[in-house]
Structure formats: C-alpha cells, structure tokens
Amino acid sequence: MGTKRHFRIWRGDESGGDLQDYQVEVNEGEVVLDVIHRLQATDAPDLACRWNCKAGKCGSCSMEINGMPKLGCMTRMSTFEEAETVTVTPLRTFPIIRDLVTDVSFNYEKARETPAFAPPAGVAPGEYRMQQVDVERSQEFRKCIECFLCQNVCHVVRDHEENKQAFSGPRFFIRAAELDMHPLDAKTDRKEYAQAEQGLGFCNITKCCTEVCPEHIKITDNAIIPMKERVVDRRYDPLVWLGSKIFRRGQVPQTSVTSGSHSGAVHSHAAAGGVHSHAGGSHDPAAEAQAQAGVNWHREVPKPTAPAVDDNGKLPLTELTFDRAAAPSPFGDDVQFPLPPEHLNFAHPEQDKH
Amino acid sequence: MTTTNRIERHHYDVVVIGAGGAGLRAAIEARLAGKKTAIISKSLFGKAHTVMAEGGAAAAMGNVNSRDNWQVHFRDTMRGGKFLNNFRMAELHAKESPQRIWELETYGALFDRTKDGKISQRNFGGHEYPRLAHVGDRTGLELIRTLQQKIVSLQQEDKAEFGSYDARIKVFAETTITELLLDGEKVAGAFGYYRESGEFILFEAPAVVLATGGVGRSYKVTSNSWEYTGDGHALALRAGATLINMEFLQFHPTGMVWPPSVKGILVTESVRGDGGILKNSDGKRFMFDYVPDVFRKQYADNEAEADRWYKDPDNNRRPPELLPRDEVARAINSEVKAGRGTPAGGVYLDIASRLPAEEIRRRLPSMYHQFKELADVDITKEPMEVGPTCHYVMGGVEVDPDSGAAYGTVRGLFAAGEVSGGMHGSNRLGGNSLSDLLVFGKRAGGHAASYADQLTSRPKVSIGAVEAAVETALAPLQRDTGENPYHLQQDLQAVMGDLVGIIRRHGELEDALSRLAELRERVAKVSAAGGRRYNPGWHLALDLRNMLVVSECTAKAALERQESRGGHTREDFPAMDPKWRRVNLVCALDGDTVRLTHKPLPKMRAELVGLFDRAELAKYLTDEELADFDALAEEAGK
Questions:
Q1: What CA–CA distance (Å, rounded) separates A319 from A296?
Q2: In angstroms, rounded to a whole number, what is the distance separating the alpha carbons of residues B321 and B277?
C-alpha cells in the first residue's frame, strides 16, 4: 500500500489561478503522471493535463515539476524525499489554456515556417543511397519527440514574449541542423536561413535546452554551435573585418586587402611576440603603427574547456536555479572588467573617422 | 435551433479522422489528388500512437537478403494470420509496401542503412527474411515525423500558391469527432468538439476516412494511449458500417509488468530478435517446450542450434523466442499459471547475459534509455519482467480491400490502419502495421478523393442530426447524479481484462456480456463535473459509449467463435478448426444492440493458393478446400 504525499498543482485558466493542495496516495514505482491520473480519478476529475504514451515517447506531458521542466511520465516519485512537497505547474513560456495545459501553437507556427526537406533532383524513390555514418548525425536530431521543453526553458522567449516573432527556438535549430546535415537534402542555405530567419543569433549558448532534453539530444553542442560557427565563418569572420581595417591604413600594399584572400595576407603580416594593446585608443599615427606591429595574430586562442559537471554529467546549475535572473556572462564568470590592457586586441570600428 | 446556428462550420472534400500514420498518409494522398482536406487529431499534431511502434516497417525490399520478395511476405502474413486474412489485402500490402517505404525517403525519412547505403532491414517474429526497415528502435516516431513534415511541406506549397498554409490541407489538433452525419446512406459530415475550448465544430464533407486506431483502453493492462477508445469502430457502426474479426486482439507477449510506472509498456520484439531469451522463475529457457507442430520445421528444438541462428540464419533453425506473438503470449501465460512466474506475474526477458552492455546500448538505444529513465532498470545488467499486454486489435471496419471503402449500408466512408479489419486475419505480424497504414492509408485517401469527385451533388447535413449530436455531447455535463467516468472506465477495463482477456472461456464470456449490459445502463447516466474547457472527465464520459459498444462486439464474437486461432484463445476449444477458417464474424448495429452474423471468407485466387505447399495448407484448410487445391494442381500439371 502506498503513502500519502503532498502535491501542489496549479489550477486555473488564462484569467488567473493558483496552486492548490492535494494529499494523494503514491505507490512504489510510480511517476508524477500516475499521481495526476489518480487525482483525476478521485479529487479532481476535471484536472486538465495532456498525455498520450506514458512512456517518454510522444512528448505530450510536459510540465514544470518543482520548477524544473520535465515530462510527467519520466519523473519517478522515488526521486523526491518522502516528506517533500511536489509542486506541478504548467510550462511558463506558453499561454495557459487550463490547469497544466498550455497553448503550444507557437511551435507549430515555427515548424510551418521552416523550409521542408528538398528531395534531390533526378534520384528516384528506392535509389537513395546514404552511409550509416552520414545519416547518424541527422538521426540524433530526429529523435526529437517535440515535448517543447527546450522551447519552454529557452530564456530568449521564456520571459520575453516580444522575441517570439523573430526567434524559432532550439527545436527548430535542430530541425535546420538536421536538414543541413542530411546527406541528400538539395537545399544548401540552411545555416544562413537559421541566422537570418530563425533568429539563431539570439542564442547565447547557455545550454539550458540541452539540459532539459528528455532525449538527451546535444542541442547546443551538436546543432547550435556548429551552425553558428559555420555562419560566422562565412559572414562575420573578425579577422577578415579587422584585417581590412588595418591594411586600409597603408601599412601594406592595398592589393592584398580582399576578403577572399584574407587569412594568408593577415598572417603573413603578423610579427612575433607581444600582445596587442591600443594603449587607450591613441590618435597618434606613430603610436598606432607601433602598436599594430606588436600584434600577434598567431596568438593561440585558448581551447574551450569543458565546464565542471556533477555526478550525473550535468552542469551544477541551470537558469532556474541560477543566482541571477539573466544568462551568465558569455566571457565566463572568471573574467573581470575592465580587462588589463595587455589582454586587449581591439581596433575601434570608428577610429578611421577621427 | 439557436444552438446549432452558432456552431463553427467547415466545408471540406475529404475529412480524415485520426492523425496517426494511416490518417496522415490518407490526407497526403487526398491533398495530392487536389481535394480540400481536413485532418482531425484527438491529440496535438504528431503525438499519435504510431510513435510507439518500435520495431520497424515490413517491406520485402530484399536489401539484406535478396531472396525476399512479395510472395514470401504474402506467405508470412497469411501464416501469421492463420489464413483468416483477407487475401487481397495481404497481397496488396506485400506488393506495395516497398514503394511506400521508398516514398518516405523522398519526404525526408532517414532509415538505418546497410553497408552499401540501402535501407537496412532487421529480423522480426514471423518474417522469414530480415524485412523491417527501421530507425534504431524508434521507427514509429520517424514515420509520424516524416509524414507530419510532408504535410507541412504541402502546406508551404499551398502558401506559395494561395497565400495561406491552410488553403488545401488543415490540421484540427485536439479535436474529437463524436458523430458522423448522414444524408440517407451517404456520409454528409462529421460533428465534434475542440478539446481546448469545448466548443462544437461541424465538418460538411462528402467523404470521411476513419484512421482512429484501436481499442486498447478498454483493457486493464495495455500498451495503448488514452486515445485508443475505439472511436472509429463505434462511429462506423453507428453510421451503418460493419465490423469484422472483433474477437481477435493481439496481446503483445512482452509488456513490462513491473514496476507500475511502466506497466503495459512494450518491450520490442527486436530484443528477442537480437538475442534476448525468455526464462521462468526457475531460470529455465522455456520456449522450446511450446513450439507448435505447424512450426517445427522452422524453429530450433535445442539451445545450441537456436544460438547459432543469430550468426548463421541460413543453416540453422530460428530460436523459439521468435515464434509469432500469440504463441509466445500463450507460453508466458502457461508458465505464469503453472506457478513459475515472477512475483509481479510475468517471466524474465534476459538480454543482459547474452550481449555485451555496449552492444545492447547500441542496438536498443531507446529501449535502454526508456527503462533506465522510467523504471531505473538497467537492461544491460538485469533481466526485465515481462508479460502479455493488450496491444493491437486485428478486427475493425469491414472494407473493400482495394479502396478501403466501408461495407454495410453507408456510402462515402473509408477506413485504414488499425481501425480497419481483415488485413491481419487472426493475428498480425510485427512490422506489418506500419506498412499496413502506409499502403492502405494511401489507398483510402486516394479512393475517398475519387469518390468525392464522382458525386454529382453534395450530401446535406440535417439540422436535426446536429441538434441530436449537441444534446448527446452535453448530456454528461448536465447530469450531476450519475457516476464518475473514471470509475466506469475502471469497471469496464476490469470486465474486459478479466473475462475477455488473452484466454477465454464460455462461462466467463457470458458473464462479461451481462456485466457489459449493466455497464451500458450506467454509462448512459454518466455525469462529468466541471465545465467545457479542456475537461478530461467530460471527454472520457463521451468516449465511454464507444468503448462499450466495441467491447460488446469483442465479447459477442469471442463467445461465438468456438475455436482457438491467432489472437483468440478459447480454453474450452483449444484447437484450430478448419471449418471456422471459412467464416468471418460480422458485427452491425441494430438500433442499439450489436447483431452478429456469419459471413464466408472470400476465396483465395488460384495463383496465390499455389504459393503454398500442400502440407502447409493441410493444417488450415478443410478437406473440401484441399480437394479443390488438388484439382487445380492436377490441371496445372497437365
């Protein structure tokens, strides 16, 4: 026989609501969704909650349990202390319909805007040939069960309704990545599309989406970051941009300044030793030149290091339990501002005008 | 009158009820035929029960073993269904499934590959060669996502052409249909409600495709989701269509029985295909004791040969763990009844001691993941506790094999997928359901479109029928004296699970029928608390009458069929009887009551009969039929 446990469940609709207390029986081996079903069969027959497979395969029963976005069917009661109150609330990012049910139509609208698979011309059905190793990359993203927990946790839209227009969210970044990596997809501008139309640039890689994914898809590492990197490669390479600024000042022949041949030109110009410093943005051409000469364009950018993770291989904090409301610093918490001058290597975009 | 005026109305050419594999494939076909198509989904778009299918989709592509072809697939399907299948459906299915699978690749599906880059195929119970196209063990998800994305891509084409995504194909998510509306014998539309708001919705359409899936929620232990309340079966009955083979339910042999959070959830057959074995509580590998005579030729009788088969299938007979599902389910049931089961009433399925942990994780990733997450069971370290769970209904709407058009008095009604009957006979082979819903989904959608085309005038929805539908739908909310729908459902599940379950007896079935009659009275007075907005109690109250009428069909047909065959096992008639093979039991509604009639099976064409050995046919056919076969063979020999 089970024990009585304390649940607090948000009841209400778009006009408002509150947490209601329930004492409910819980048996060994049950999950949160089992308990919600028991409540429906006893105290709260009209408690609204989506569910389908009860096996973690359909992604219907997304909810926030003690503040963490989770699937109700995948949250074992044994993960809570016997005396712990379990608080269940609807997904915060989407408008409430009733109780635990939210209006997730945002996701279906974004799905419709994402260009579909483009079949390769001239390849008949049955003639598709792909290697396992090539399909596996996209297959990781096709594991997605569309529970929309990643969309719910993404801080770009979680508390910023105004961003929903321009931002598709992690679910559709992995869709773009999946098509980008599809061996036979005939469309070649998936990355550019993600940047220009899906709002990939809004993402500042806090990895909350990866952390809540019940399918353990490495949304950030395997989809978002590679897409960002490749978009950046093509459009915003800082070396291309910076190199053109420097060379335009007549230090080297103008002929070498073309965006197409940037890397060779810049690197050939690099001198050994020293870290570039603008020394406070001097307007003295001689000082500038000297400073430029000291720039080490071969400076090794430190390799990204893996963050410290806990026993479960997860970050010890999430946005939900974090000590501040916004995302952590993209530079890392150990970087103090202002930076010491010898660590700076920056040329102001407006400096030519002075 | 005023109530019906305010109901939201839509006009479509084809309305597809159900958004699983069959429904989506039918809708794609209807839209490709230029018809304005609506898809009604009881859940959100893309959540349908098809996502649960793990093993794969059977199609004789011959990518792994080139000896496979449609004839072999046809033979396997007929054997699996114990020759009760509608032969024409089995034939169409075997012939067309490869094209349907290849077509999915053009929609963007990514199946696992062979070394030479073709679609990989895996072994499965009852299939002679590796035949199941698969994606790890989440093939159903791949299928539903692919079809979902194809629909989105069609919507994008429509947006480019007409300026609106919904111009020619629209998904009505979280919408339930409660009645089909007729104009005489012709389908005129469908009536239902939005789950979110509780508001009613009326579709006026000359053609309706049912693709609502199965009936498993009427059972205590089931792998089916809440949606499986037999809606399509009941809608068809009430519209004047007929159901066949309702006595045949597939109990998947290996559902989890412990812990309760995963009770009923399937352990895919590929666990056994990849080397998993069944053991009782004495630790004995018991399946060797349960190989029926008809299968002696194909299945090993000792462990050494069985174990060699995984590496060398051409020179060894198959392990008995890969017998058809009903045989395995019966064997487990017998072991448990003999007191050799686990404490939770199942047996052990052991893969942990058979394959290295890493190999298990690679071959069965979502299986591993599922049990780790849901039950904290590590299948690479310990055996699973499994037992039979209600999984699939072979019976369903009686349809024309080529078009999917429902028989009976109704016109303009089509059915595909689990809700239709005949294709699988008395038992379905694993992997045949995913290909079934593609093959017959396409056919039903296409024929619904051409039916709509050839009508000279559109059938009209009568206001009276709509008013009656409104009244029926609102009744549970207006009563406050009736019973709680959840308790009624539990009682129904108890009756079906205990009395019309995997092993059936005459007395119990009669008992079940009288209890169902009592339940009918109680269900008629059910009341639901709360309002109309997203009220699951109300939704269940409305589903109950569908579950009830379908359960009555199953119980009546199970009582009538005095033999054991496939998904129907009678303890008092344990053998298969060739005379019963010639009969389909057909259910129809006569007023409120289910009427059962016998109908002879269609006669298989000579060239199809010729695909089988005489020795094999002798196990299934009557002497009279065998004499016909001999006469044909003699003629061919001349």
A1: 37
A2: 6
- Residue A40 sits at the chain B interface (C-beta within 8 Å): yes
| Assigned architecture for domain B21-248+394-479+495-602 | 3-Layer(bba) Sandwich (3.50)
- The token pair at B629 is 């076969």
Burial of residue A279 (CB within 10 Å: 0-12, 13-18, 19+) is: middle
Q: Kindly tell me the number of DSSP H helices and DSSP E strands found in chain B.
A: 20, 23
State residue A252's pLDDT score.
40
Q: Return the pLDDT at B223.
A: 85
Q: How high is the mean pLDDT of chain A?
A: 80
Show which of residues 130-159 on chain B sit within 8 Å of chain A, judged by CB atoms. 135-136, 138, 141-142, 145, 149-150, 152-153, 155-156, 159
C-alpha A138/C-alpha A146 separation (Å) is 16
Put the strands of the sheet holding B243-244 in their side by side order. Answer: B420-421, B396-398, B243-244, B583-590, B593-600
User: What is the percent of chain A where pLDDT is above 70?
Assistant: 67
Domain assignment present for A272: no
Which residue out of A40, A46, A78 would a mutagenesis test of the B interface target, given it has the greatest number of B Cβ atoms within 10 Å? A46
A222 burial level (CB within 10 Å; 0-12, 13-18, 19+): middle
Residue A98 and residue A111 in one domain: no
Count of structural domains, chain A: 2
- Domain B252-388: which CATH number of 3.40.50.720, 3.30.1330.60, 3.90.700.10, 3.40.50.150: 3.90.700.10
pLDDT at A312 over 80: no
| B139-162 helix and B87-106 helix, angle to the nearest 10 degrees | 70
So what's the pLDDT on residue B200?
Answer: 97
**Domain presence at residue A309:** no
Number of inter-chain CB pairs under 8 A, A vs B: 180
Q: Tell me the backbone φ, ψ of residue A70, rounded to 5 degrees.
A: -150, 170
Indicate if A113 and A85 belong to the same structural domain.
Answer: no
Which of the two residues, A162 and A289, has the higher pLDDT score? Answer: A162
Of A331-340, B103-112, B347-356, the range with the highest mean pLDDT is B103-112
pLDDT the model gives residue B372 = 83
Predicted confidence band of residue B329 (pLDDT cuts 50, 70, 90):
confident
Is residue B325 part of the annotated active site? The answer reads yes
ipTM: 0.87
Residue B273 has pLDDT above 70, yes or no: yes
Residue B231 is labelled as binding a ligand: yes
* Structural domain containing residue A9: 3-102
Mean pLDDT, residues B385-390 taken together:
88
B353 assigned ligand-binding residue: no
Classified as helix, coil or strand, B583 is: strand
Say how far apart CA B345 and CA B519 lie, in whole Å: 28
How far apart, in whole angstroms, are the C-alpha atoms of residue A187 and residue B408? Answer: 49
Q: What is the DSSP letter of B429?
A: P
Tell me, yes or no, if A80 comes closer than 8 A to chain B by beta carbon: no
A72 in reach of chain B (CB within 8 A): no
Assess whether pLDDT exceeds 60 at residue B556. yes
Kindly state whether residues A98 and A109 are assigned to the same domain: no
B328: pLDDT strictly greater than 60: yes
Helix B463-478 / helix B536-560 crossing angle, nearest 10 deg: 110
Phi, psi of B374 (to 5 degrees): -80, -30
Asked if residue A11 has pLDDT above 90, the reply is: yes
Q: What's the pLDDT score for residue A234?
A: 58
Residues B599-620 pLDDT 10s: 999 999 999 999 999 999 999 9
**SS3 of A266, please?**
helix
Separation of alpha carbons B426 and B327, rounded Å = 12
| Residues A73 and A179 reside in one and the same domain | no
Give the C-alpha separation, A273 to B544, whole Å. Answer: 80
What is the model's pLDDT at position B22? 98
